[in-house]
């Protein structure tokens, strides 16, 4: 076995460990040394493969995105009515963010970055946040029509994503004030359905107000 072949599993372990630790603890609280200890590799391996912690952070986003297959279903729903497209996109985002497992890591990383921006925010936004933002902007614009001001549509996008992020990042609060909430498959599906219904009802109400 060549030296290159023996090093590739180490690179993968670094990426897998980095993604999980960045999601759980955030960028600032996760050191390269802690990642290397958990991945059972030498710190020099990170320098060899990624050059710096920031570059490792970016690579972790790319790796998590590959695991999630983000936007794979976007093209398949474009033939549906705008409201149905938005509903499905919201429910997919909720389910992906709240479920455990590898497919949830990407959106959880994005949520962490939005809450605790790092020095790499502009590069991460260009690669990952802006495409998702553009998707929801397009979908909401499809529901409300072409005449709403861009800044109002922008606020609607933030409102939708904000609801999802709140459920994803506030489970400790939920345990205290709403212990009946469940995060099993049925519970997550119920949360997703609620957010989509709530959002579509709010948009319909706003549209009615605009036309009155």
Concise summary:
This protein is mainly alpha-helical and 212 residues long. The chain has helices spanning 3-25, 32-39, 43-50, 53-68, 82-98, 105-115, 121-144, 150-169, 171-177, 185-211. Helix 5 packs antiparallel against helix 10 (185-211).
Protein model, in words:
This protein is mainly alpha-helical and 212 residues long. It has 10 helices and no strands. The protein has helices at 3-25, 32-39, 43-50, 53-68, 82-98, 105-115, 121-144, 150-169, 171-177, 185-211. The relative contact order is 0.10. 76% of the residues lie in helices and 0% in strands.
CATH class of the largest domain: Mainly Alpha
Shape designation = elongated
What is the ordering of alpha helices and beta strands?
HHHHHHHHHH
By helix and strand content, what is the structural category? mainly alpha
Give me the count of strands: 0
Count of runs of 4 or more consecutive helical residues: 10
Could you tell me how far the N terminus lies from the C terminus, measured between alpha carbons in angstroms? 73 Å
- CATH-defined fold name of the largest domain: Tetracycline Repressor, domain 2
Helix content: over 70%
The amount of beta strand, in percent, is under 5%
Can you name the CATH architecture of the largest domain? Orthogonal Bundle
Largest sheet descriptor: none
């Amino acid at each position: 076995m060549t030296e290159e072949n023996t090093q590739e599993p180490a690179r993968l372990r670094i990426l897998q460990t980095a993604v999980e630790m960045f999601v759980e603890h955030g960028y600032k609280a996760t050191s390269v040394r802690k990642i290397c200890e958990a991945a059972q590799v030498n710190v020099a391996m990170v320098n060899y493969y990624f050059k710096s912690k920031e570059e490792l952070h970016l690579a972790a986003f790319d790796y998590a995105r590959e695991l999630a297959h983000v936007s794979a279903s976007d093209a398949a729903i474009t033939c549906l009515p705008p409201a149905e497209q938005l509903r499905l996109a919201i429910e997919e985002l909720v389910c992906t963010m709240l479920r455990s497992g590898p497919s949830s890591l990407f959106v959880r990383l994005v949520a962490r970055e939005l809450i605790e921006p790092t020095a790499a925010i502009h590069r991460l936004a260009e690669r990952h946040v802006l495409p998702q933002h553009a998707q929801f902007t397009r979908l909401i614009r499809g529901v409300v029509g072409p005449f709403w001001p861009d800044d109002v549509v922008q606020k609607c996008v933030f409102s939708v994503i904000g609801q999802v992020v709140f459920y994803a990042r506030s489970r400790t609060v939920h345990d205290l004030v709403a212990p009946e909430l469940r995060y099993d498959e049925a519970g997550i599906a119920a949360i997703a359905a609620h957010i989509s219904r709530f959002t579509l009802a709010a948009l319909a109400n706003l549209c009615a107000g605009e036309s009155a």
